[in-house]
Every structure is written in C-alpha cells, then in structure tokens.
Amino acid sequence: MQRLYFSLNIPRDDYLRYYRGAAARVMARAQDGRTLSLPASRLRPFVTHTGIQGRFCAVLGPDNRLISLERQPD
C-alpha cells in the first residue's frame, strides 16, 4: 500500500459546488509531486462550516485505488 500526504484548503463556497454535484473529483498535489484525483464524496466527513482545511493521508491499494482517507493531526 502507498501513502500519499497532501494539504487541502477548500473554502466552503467552493466545496458546495462539489457537494451539489457540479464537480465529481477534487485534484490535489501530494508532497512528492504526484497529482491525486479524489472523489469529492470521500471528503464529506471533513467538511466544516469554513470548508475543508488540513493535511491528509490517502492510502492507495496496489491498483492505485483509494482505500482510505485520513486527516492528519496539526
């Protein structure tokens, strides 16, 4: 399994577009320079009244599919 670490700062109004279905995926750049394309629905548990902010870890399987998404402590 691979672990990719990345940061997100998505204001509430921007995330509402994903939530309403206007966009299905969120793009992020991992610390190692790789680009991630995440299903926007997987970010719903991390939405606050200000949007989504913080550091995250994406755990990928051998086929590069997302297994889990974890928020990292500050």
Structure description:
- The chain is mostly beta strands.
- It has one domain (2-71): OB fold (Dihydrolipoamide Acetyltransferase, E2P) (Beta Barrel), CATH 2.40.50.
- Helix content is 11%, strand content 49%.
- Strands 1-4-5 form a 3-stranded antiparallel sheet. Strands 2-3 form a two-stranded antiparallel sheet.
- Strand 2 (25-29) and strand 3 form a beta hairpin.
- The longest helix is centred in the N-terminal third of the chain and has 8 residues, at 12-19.
- InterPro entries: DUF2835.
- This is DUF2835 domain-containing protein.
Could you provide a short overview of the structure?
The protein has one helix and five strands, in the order E-H-E-E-E-E.
Silhouette? globular
Residue-averaged pLDDT: 92
Largest sheet: 3 strands, antiparallel
Into which percent range does the helicity of residues fall?
A: 10-25%
